[in-house]
Amino acid sequence: MESTTSVQPFELSVEACRARRGTKWNKYPSDVLPAWVADMDFSVAEPIQEAIERLVNLGDYGYGARLGEVSLETAFAERMERRFGWSPDPEQVQPVSELIQALFSVLLAFSEPGDGVVMQTPIYPPFLVALAQTERRLVDNPLADEGSRFVLDAADLRRKVDDRTRILVVCNPHNPSGRVLEREELLALGELAVERDMVIVADEIHADLLYSGRRHVVMATLSPEIASRTITITSATKGFNIPGLRCALMHFGSPELRERFRRTIPDRLLGQVNVIGIDATVAAWRHGQPWLDRVMTRLSANRERVAEFVAAELPGVRHYQPEATYLAWLDCGALDLPSSPAEFFLEQARVGLNDGADFGPASQSCVRLNFGTSGAILEEVLERMAAAVRASRAGGNGTRQSSSRPPIRS
Ligand SMILES: Cc1ncc(COP(=O)(O)O)c(C=O)c1O
């Protein structure tokens, strides 16, 4: 069954995607459909495009005071207030190029090699890379499988935190599970951080991408004690599909926290953000919501379709529908595939997925599928995966089985 949502103007065709020069569509040979890195196959919101065109048409590439529009800091504060009822202090905002730069900086500023850092695995792989490269120690607090969704395991965390555990990283909404942590779950984390004097890093980059019935609770709104030790890191790049423009920010929950950070990482070490990224981000936050609302309709339909397809055509694959994000986390352990699932689907289905092994110690049987694409491309991705599994079950000889569907042209 095809998705019920009609094709939207922002949905790019395969040809349009392949004409792009970004990472997603250029990593693999041209017969592979990429469904990995967290870019959506959608053109950006008009106001973003207009803001960039304005700047390009003026050739306005000097140092960027950005007078005329509101500042990045103000646009951020206004959006947080409007969307999440949070009033961050624009004075405590530090623009950066990207969230992972922010994470590295916090690790260096607030911990020493060998110190513990809490994360909930499976987790966005660059988090683990940041730990490895700064020689910090993972205090792993894996999400627990409740049977219908993953949940935070606060008791497990309480047992594991030791005197050298300095930082608690919370990814909410969570990548790759798509969980939107509830207030009680966040409180359990926040209260433990207060009790054990940990700095909190709250990565809330996916907060724009919530499905119906979900509410994003900003970590820094839980209590003054929690806020004062929380560094929120976020950007418009996931919700508005502009990750290549490299503009993000850190918000420090108290001036003291920021001063402690600056002792190790002076502002200038972080560099300044390029003006295109700033103008695009301000346009996204101020004027992009109607576009995002339409995108969420497409993503909701895709999310349903993945669940329905997996249940019907990929029996044995364990999948809980994400509560946010356009990422599906699929445990393929029961398929008993001849190689790792990511390798199998790449070789036999010509579909490029993220390898679960990169997300933590217990995820080798998983893949992450990005469904931020047109209904037609998603359908082809799923069909190819199911055909490869059927062929493998039928004792396939290892040669690739192509889908019986005609090439997509949407
Ligand atoms: C949870 C999470 N944090 C951070 C990032 C990356 O952000 P940046 O490109 O700004 O480093 C991503 C990208 O997908 C992500 O999913």
What can be said about this structure in brief?
With 410 residues, the protein is α/β, with parallel strands linked by helices. It is built from 13 helices and 15 strands.
CATH architecture label name of the largest domain: 3-Layer(aba) Sandwich
Number of helices: 13
**CATH class division of the largest domain:** Alpha Beta
Structural class: alpha/beta
Summed up, the domain count is 2
What can you see in these coordinates?
- This protein is α/β, with parallel strands linked by helices and 410 residues long.
- The chain folds into two domains: 14-45 and 289-393, Aspartate Aminotransferase, domain 1; 62-287, Type I PLP-dependent aspartate aminotransferase-like (Major domain) (Aspartate Aminotransferase, domain 2, 3-Layer(aba) Sandwich), CATH 3.40.640.
- The chain has helices at residues 14-18, 46-58, 72-84, 99-110, 125-134, 154-160, 183-195, 224-227, 255-264, 275-287, 289-313, 341-349, 375-393; strands at residues 33-34, 93-96, 116-119, 137-140, 144-145, 150-151, 165-171, 199-203, 230-234, 248-252, 318-319, 327-331, 351-352, 354-355, 366-370.
- Strand 11 and strand 12 form a beta hairpin.
- Helix 12 (341-349) crosses helix 13 (375-393).
